[in-house]
């Protein structure tokens, strides 16, 4: 049985993409279905069954509620600045970049943990 985890990932511009992971294979899409379809095309054709887990973007031990709140606030500020033709203050942009990187690391850790749990 093929095991697949699908995780939402925040983008630099405030959107969400989805990463589908199965073993060493990965794909990204605008939706969970698009990511799964792209991953399916990479998998061996003889796989007949698949277990899919979709991770919701909620606070957890990898990315806390406070980090989510701050990321949401900074993204709102970033969008407002963008729409006004300006940029965030340097400190806020650096904090936003660090939080996006932290969420990407958290998504990787979530996927790794889920796949280990599935293998048990």
How is this structure best described in words?
Strand 1 and strand 2 (16-22) form a beta hairpin. The chain contains 3 helices and 4 strands, in the order E-E-E-H-E-H-H. The longest helix is centred in the C-terminal third of the chain and has 30 residues, at 90-119. Strands 3-2-1-4 form a 4-stranded mixed beta sheet, with helices on both faces. Helix content is 50%, strand content 22%. The protein has one domain (2-119). The protein is α+β, with helices and mostly antiparallel strands and 120 residues long. The radius of gyration is 16 Å and the shape is elongated. The chain has helices at residues 32-42, 65-83, 90-119; strands at residues 2-10, 16-22, 25-29, 50-54. Helix 2 crosses helix 3.
Give me the secondary-structure topology:
Blueprint: E1 2-10, E2 16-22, E3 25-29, H1 32-42, E4 50-54, H2 65-83, H3 90-119
Helix pairs in contact: 2-3
Features:
alpha+beta; elongated; single chain; 120 residues
The residue ranges in which pLDDT falls below 50 over 5 or more consecutive positions are: none
Helix content: 40-55%
Total number of strands: 4
Strand fraction: 15-25%
**What gyration radius follows from the Cα positions, in whole Å?**
16 Å
Short description:
The chain has 120 residues and is of the alpha+beta class. Helix content is 50%, strand content 22%.
């Amino acid at each position: 049985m093929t095991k697949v985890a699908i995780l939402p990932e925040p983008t630099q511009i405030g959107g969400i993409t989805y990463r589908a992971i199965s073993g060493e294979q990965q794909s990204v899409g605008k939706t969970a279905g698009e990511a799964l379809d792209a991953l399916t095309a990479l998998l061996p054709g003889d796989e007949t069954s698949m277990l899919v887990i979709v991770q919701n973007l909620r606070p957890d031990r990898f990315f806390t509620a406070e980090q989510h709140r701050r990321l949401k606030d900074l993204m709102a500020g970033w969008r407002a600045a963008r729409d006004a033709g300006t940029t965030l203050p340097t400190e806020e942009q650096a904090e936003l970049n660090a939080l996006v990187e932290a969420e990407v690391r958290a998504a990787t850790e979530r996927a790794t943990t889920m796949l280990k749990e599935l293998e048990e």
